[in-house]
C-alpha cells in the first residue's frame, strides 16, 4: 500500500501543477460530487421531471452513502493530506501540493464517498434520461449522450478529489465502480408506494446497524476516531474542519432523508399532479427553500444536539420538495384558474 499511496501523491502533485489557475473549477466540480448535493440539488431537479426517478435518487443516495460509511469504517483508508506528514517518507523531497477548503474531510478515505454516491445517483438520472430519449427518438446516438456525460462526470469528480488531496486514485476508482453497481441494483428496487412503517424500519434499522457496528469495532479495540484526529493534526487551517464531514453526520443525513421520504409519501400518496409550468415554479421555490434549510446554522455543542438537528433537517427536505411547495403551487394555480 505504501507504494500505491506514494504514487498517488505524485499524481496529485502533477495534477495540481498542470491545473495552475483552475483551482476554483476543480472545487466547483468536487462540490457537485458532494453527497449532500444529491439530496439538495439532484433530488429536486429530478423529482419535478419524473416522480419515480426523484424518489429513486433520494433512495439510492441514502443507501449508497450509508454503505460508503460502513466500507470506510471497515477499510481504514488513509487520505493524502494527512498521509504525506504521517508517512514521513517525504522529509527530503516534499511534494509541491496545497490544501483547499474542501480538503480536510474527517472520515477514512476508502472508498471515495463523492465518487461512490455520484456514480450511484447519476446512474439513476442519466439512465432514465437515456431511456426517455430512446423511447421518443429511437436514436441510439442521441440516447447514448447521457451515458457519455455520465463517464465524463465520474472522471471529473474523481480527478477533483485527487486534485484537492482528499483521495488517492485507487480510492476514487473503487468508489466509482461500487457506486455504479449500487446504482444499477438499487434503481430496480425503488420503494414507491411503500407504507410509512417500511421507511421507519429502514431508517431506524440503518441507524442501529451502524451504531452496533461502531460499538462492536470499539469493543475490539479499534478507535474509529483515528481519522478525525489525523485530519485535525494535518489540516492547514482549523476552520476547514467541519462537523458535517464527520461520519455520524452522513449517517444522520441518510436516516433522516429516508424517514422524510416515507413521511412525504404518507401525507400525499402519489404526490401532486402538476402541469409543466407549475412544476418549473415548484422547482424554483423548492430550490430556494432547500438553500435556506441548508444554510441554517446548527449548534456544534453538544454534538448529540447537532446530530439530532441534522437528522431533522434532512427529514424536512422531502417534505419541502414533495409536499409543501408543490401543494402550495397547486393551491394557488387552481385558485387562479377558478377565478
Automatic annotation (TrEMBL):
SUPFAM superfamilies: Acid phosphatase/Vanadium-dependent haloperoxidase
GO terms for cellular component: endoplasmic reticulum membrane
Stored PANTHER family: GLUCOSE-6-PHOSPHATASE, GLUCOSE-6-PHOSPHATASE 3
Residue ranges of every copy of the Phosphatidic acid phosphatase type 2/haloperoxidase domain listed in the record: 53-187
Localization per Swiss-Prot or TrEMBL: Endoplasmic reticulum membrane
Signal peptide bounds: none
Classification via InterPro entries: Glucose-6-phosphatase (IPR016275), PAP2/HPO (IPR000326), PAP2/HPO_sf (IPR036938)
Name of the protein this chain belongs to: Glucose-6-phosphatase
Involved pathway(s): Carbohydrate biosynthesis; gluconeogenesis
Family stated for the protein in its record: Belongs to the glucose-6-phosphatase family.
Alphabetized Pfam families for the sequence: PAP2
Enzyme superclass (EC): hydrolase
Amino acid at each position: 500500500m505504501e507504494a500505491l499511496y506514494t504514487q498517488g501523491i505524485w499524481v496529485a502533485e502533477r495534477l495540481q501543477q498542470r491545473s495552475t489557475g483552475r483551482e476554483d473549477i476543480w472545487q466547483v466540480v468536487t462540490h457537485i460530487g458532494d453527497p449532500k448535493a444529491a439530496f439538495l440539488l439532484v433530488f429536486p431537479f429530478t423529482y419535478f421531471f419524473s416522480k419515480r426517478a426523484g424518489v429513486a435518487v433520494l433512495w439510492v443516495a441514502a443507501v449508497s452513502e450509508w454503505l460508503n460509511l460502513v466500507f470506510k469504517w471497515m477499510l481504514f483508508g488513509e487520505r493524502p493530506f494527512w498521509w504525506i506528514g504521517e508517512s514521513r517518507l517525504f522529509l527530503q523531497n516534499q511534494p509541491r501540493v496545497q490544501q483547499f477548503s474542501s480538503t480536510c474531510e474527517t472520515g477514512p478515505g476508502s472508498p471515495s464517498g463523492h465518487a461512490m454516491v455520484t456514480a450511484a445517483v447519476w446512474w439513476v438520472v442519466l439512465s432514465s434520461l437515456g431511456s426517455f430519449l430512446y423511447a421518443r427518438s429511437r436514436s441510439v446516438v442521441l440516447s447514448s449522450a447521457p451515458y457519455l456525460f455520465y463517464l465524463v462526470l465520474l472522471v471529473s469528480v474523481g480527478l477533483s478529489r485527487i486534485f484537492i488531496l482528499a483521495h488517492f486514485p485507487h480510492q476514487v476508482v473503487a468508489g466509482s465502480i461500487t457506486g455504479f453497481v449500487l446504482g444499477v441494483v438499487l434503481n430496480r428496487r425503488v420503494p414507491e408506494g411503500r407504507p410509512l412503517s417500511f421507511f421507519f424500519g429502514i431508517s431506524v434499522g440503518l441507524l442501529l446497524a451502524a451504531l452496533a457496528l461502531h460499538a462492536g469495532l470499539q469493543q475490539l479495540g479499534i478507535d474509529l476516531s483515528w481519522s478525525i484526529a489525523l485530519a485535525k493534526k494535518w489540516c492547514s487551517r482549523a476552520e476547514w474542519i467541519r462537523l458535517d464531514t464527520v461520519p455520524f453526520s452522513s449517517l444522520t443525513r441518510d436516516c433522516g432523508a429516508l424517514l422524510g421520504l416515507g413521511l412525504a409519501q404518507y401525507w400525499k400518496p402519489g404526490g401532486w399532479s402538476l402541469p409543466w409550468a407549475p412544476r418549473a415554479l415548484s422547482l424554483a421555490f423548492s430550490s430556494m427553500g432547500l438553500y435556506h434549510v441548508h444554510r441554517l446554522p446548527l449548534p456544534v455543542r453538544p454534538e448529540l444536539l447537532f446530530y439530532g438537528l441534522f437528522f431533522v433537517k434532512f427529514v424536512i427536505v422531502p417534505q419541502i420538495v414533495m409536499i409543501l411547495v408543490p401543494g402550495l403551487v397547486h393551491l394557488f394555480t387552481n385558485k387562479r384558474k377558478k377565478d
